[in-house]
Amino acid sequence: MILNGLYDNFLSWFSVDMGIDLGTCNTLVCVRGEGIVLNEPSVVAVKKNSTQVLRNGNELAVGWVAKEMLGKTPGSITAIRPLKDGVISDFEITEAMLSYFIRKVNGQHPLVRPRVVIAVPSGITAVERRAVLDSAEKAGARKVYLVEEPMAAGIGASLPIVEATASMIVDIGGGTTEVAIMSLADIAQCESVRVAGDDMDEAIINHMKKAYNLMIGEQTAERIKIEIGSAATDGEERTMEVRGRDMISGLPRKTVITSEEIREALQEPLSAIIETVTRTLERAEPELAADLVDNGIVLAGGGALLRGIDVVVSNATGLECRIAEDPLTCVARGTAIYLEHLEEWKGTMESDADDF
Ligand SMILES: Nc1ncnc2c1ncn2[C@@H]1O[C@H](COP(=O)(O)OP(=O)(O)OP(=O)(O)O)[C@@H](O)[C@H]1O
């Protein structure tokens, strides 16, 4: 056992060990000492009705190359996101994507295969966990460890999660929102809801259909959310010109929308997120709840960047709420730190393979 550990540490000198935030929207890879070395959309372009990944010249159509094809693909090509609601919905494609990213970071023909820590949503089933482990192994990892996303986010946000005090994280990603209260390097209370940034985009698409008879794509909806979206007013209202297809005439058209109507459209997904936060707090042990009065709540994930979301969470809970530094990279940075302290963390799930 000890020899195995020493051998593994020895191999680590020759491999680029990495932490991966395998997200519904983006995949980030973090390497110790180097920070985030890869940040690409979790998108793969394949031939229609097949799992054959396309090439764009010499490059496989994965990540940025594939994202550009999304929504603009000719009939014979499908650009797909192999993760849905934070979990793998297409194994073969996920494996192809992971393998592309791991190779990109580790080099085409590495001497030693890397150790990899992958952050997974806390709500996923044992079968889904196994699927992530298998995909990463087949994608070229020497050893794979899984860490729960809120734990990784807490580590990345420098919360004192190993201490005997409660830390609370709300990680709002693309497909899932993870809410967790942690203490003594373990998750004490956790809730995961499959409502997050993607649902906000969908709410905007539905609003544009209902209010303007205008069909817009997912990328336009995301742009609206980022440019003028908000959860609470910050005293400054914004407008934006939006282009799409008229649902009646079928022709391209543009219209001007306001931040107020988008805030209204976002109410439903935001309420679901807030309910999850309050439910988690209600279930917390009294001692841990007491700690949170002083420690407050930290928001992470891309959704934390929605204007005024900290205000809304703070108003709903009565607790102080702050946004983690660089919330989009929080989980990935946490996975890389986790890799350095594997022995300290409880219940790490790891793969069986240990060959290079
Ligand atoms: N400035 C912004 N304002 C609002 N939302 C934003 C902003 N920037 C990014 N987002 C949203 O954050 C989400 C992506 O966040 P993140 O990368 O943390 O998710 P993920 O890790 O891919 O998803 P998951 O954790 O569900 O697997 C997307 O829905 C994106 O539109």
Automatic annotation (TrEMBL):
GO molecular function, one term: ATP binding
The family this protein is said to belong to: Belongs to the FtsA/MreB family.
Protein name: Cell shape-determining protein MreB
Functional summary from the UniProt entry: Forms membrane-associated dynamic filaments that are essential for cell shape determination. Acts by regulating cell wall synthesis and cell elongation, and thus cell shape. A feedback loop between cell geometry and MreB localization may maintain elongated cell shape by targeting cell wall growth to regions of negative cell wall curvature.
GO cellular component: cytoplasm
PANTHER family: CELL SHAPE-DETERMINING PROTEIN MREB
Chain positions recorded as ATP binding sites: G174, G175, T176, E222, R223, I224, K225, G302, G303, A304, L305
InterPro entries for the chain: ATPase_NBD, MreB, MreB_MamK-like
Compartment(s): Cytoplasm
Subunit structure, interactors included: Forms polymers.
Keywords, alphabetical: ATP-binding, Cell shape, Cytoplasm, Nucleotide-binding
Keyword check for Lipid metabolism: no
CDD domains for the chain: ASKHA_NBD_MreB-like
Single Gene Ontology BP annotation: regulation of cell shape
Pfam family, one: MreB_Mbl
